[in-house]
Automatic annotation (TrEMBL):
<feature type="active site" description="Proton acceptor; via carboxylate">
    <location>
        <position position="413"/>
    </location>
</feature>
<dbReference type="InterPro" id="IPR016181">
    <property type="entry name" value="Acyl_CoA_acyltransferase"/>
</dbReference>
<keyword id="KW-0808">Transferase</keyword>
<dbReference type="Pfam" id="PF13530">
    <property type="entry name" value="SCP2_2"/>
</dbReference>
<comment type="similarity">
    <text>Belongs to the acetyltransferase Eis family.</text>
</comment>
<dbReference type="InterPro" id="IPR051554">
    <property type="entry name" value="Acetyltransferase_Eis"/>
</dbReference>
<dbReference type="InterPro" id="IPR036527">
    <property type="entry name" value="SCP2_sterol-bd_dom_sf"/>
</dbReference>
<feature type="domain" description="N-acetyltransferase">
    <location>
        <begin position="3"/>
        <end position="154"/>
    </location>
</feature>
<feature type="binding site">
    <location>
        <begin position="91"/>
        <end position="96"/>
    </location>
    <ligand>
        <name>acetyl-CoA</name>
    </ligand>
</feature>
<dbReference type="InterPro" id="IPR022902">
    <property type="entry name" value="NAcTrfase_Eis"/>
</dbReference>
<feature type="active site" description="Proton donor">
    <location>
        <position position="124"/>
    </location>
</feature>
<dbReference type="InterPro" id="IPR025559">
    <property type="entry name" value="Eis_dom"/>
</dbReference>
<dbReference type="InterPro" id="IPR041380">
    <property type="entry name" value="Acetyltransf_17"/>
</dbReference>
<dbReference type="Pfam" id="PF17668">
    <property type="entry name" value="Acetyltransf_17"/>
</dbReference>
<comment type="subunit">
    <text>Homohexamer; trimer of dimers.</text>
</comment>
<protein>
    <submittedName>
        <fullName>GNAT family N-acetyltransferase</fullName>
    </submittedName>
</protein>
<dbReference type="Pfam" id="PF13527">
    <property type="entry name" value="Acetyltransf_9"/>
</dbReference>
Amino acid sequence: MSIELRKVGDADIPDWVRSLNVGFLRPPEVSKEEIEFRRGNYFPDRTQGAYDDGRWVATFRSFPQELTVVGGARVPADAVTSVTVSPTHRRRGLLSRMMADDLRAAKERGDALATLIAAEYPIYGRYGFGPAAWTTEWHIDVARAALDPRHAGPDDGGRVDFADATEVQELGPALHERFRAGQPGAIDLPDVWWQVQTGAVPLPHVPANQRFHAVYRSASGAIEGLVTYRTTDVWEHMLPQNTLTVDRLAVTTPAAERALWRFVCSIDWVLHIRTGLRAPDDLLPHHLGDPRAARIVQHSDYLWIRPLDIPRLLEARTYPAAGSLVLEVRDEAELAGGRYLLEAGPDGATCTRTDRSADLTLDVGAFASLYLGDESAVRLAALGRVDEKRPGALATAGLLLHTARRPWCPDSF
Ligand SMILES: CC(=O)SCCNC(=O)CCNC(=O)[C@H](O)C(C)(C)COP(=O)(O)OP(=O)(O)OC[C@H]1O[C@@H](n2cnc3c(N)ncnc32)[C@H](O)[C@@H]1OP(=O)(O)O
């Protein structure tokens, strides 16, 4: 029997989820809660797989998402996730076929780009994705952090309080709306995301019932930050040996950031902290009395994007200076390629197709790495991934596109 690529019907969900779990090296059992969760969060036209002789052997789904771009605007994204091909069926082109189908539909729908978190670096470049936001995790040696516990509390009239799961479900979404407005690379989080993270919807791979939550309130009572963490419970020779792992720390003000890091660094019995995945230029080390107490333990690409509509993307973001550029973007899949004139300034930008000669030529994946300001055109030129056709164009691209703070996507999907 030949392998059939098809969309997933309601009755297929349990077997499709089982195949997804096997592909991600998770136990093949599927709980009732997980099936209900998948059922409630599933877009039938955008959930597909490969079916061979009565079994699902590949899975792939996408869903609507909003991505915050430089300046705070949100663009509609096609979020790709749950990508697996069974070890019995790998390297026969199944992923390539499912991806082509999904990207074509996203383009027809009018999405500005597709997004994903890449499990492994070499998989998605061939489809026009490029790394757009990186991530870094630190280990903090608490004894060396040199934070005086007497000054561990907020120093600005604000306060830190624990919050239970219900409070987090209530206050988390509004805080996240304010957070993502100021964070290029951030995505929207559906209400169910808060239920999963707080254990209201139990999923086997989310350790929600081990989590503590604490919020920062400013002197005026506004919620400006939320930290979620877990700790071990390890003692040796009557001495605590615990590691605290930050699952998520998101803030809307510098005061909240300072207060929440000081809070997690001053919890008794904790010797080590894993910060979770932060922005690569996160200020965390500088909040410590001794920045060397924070050692990088992970540093990697994280959010990948696949541009689908270059004029819309370039018009959506902001620019710190005035300038113009002609970009020739190559795209083998013919979804976003062309020659575009960007005329940008602090008051806005236009981007249109043009016949003028190109200032810079690049593949769509290189454009992806430039778009949120994470990568610089000069660096990509040194790697042979951007070609300067007019002297000075790399410097103009740097001035227009690069940003003072790096983009960051704190959330996996
Ligand atoms: C957004 C997410 O969900 S990320 C999660 C991705 N999933 C996983 O990592 C789970 C484990 N891996 C898998 O399930 C599969 O190996 C997949 C999904 C990564 C690839 O599926 P396949 O059907 O084997 O890919 P397909 O046959 O279409 O490969 C196309 C090309 O990509 C290459 N490729 C695919 N996967 C990889 C990889 N992991 N590393 C390097 N190259 C790869 C293939 O060699 C092939 O190259 P070619 O065209 O030069 O021959």
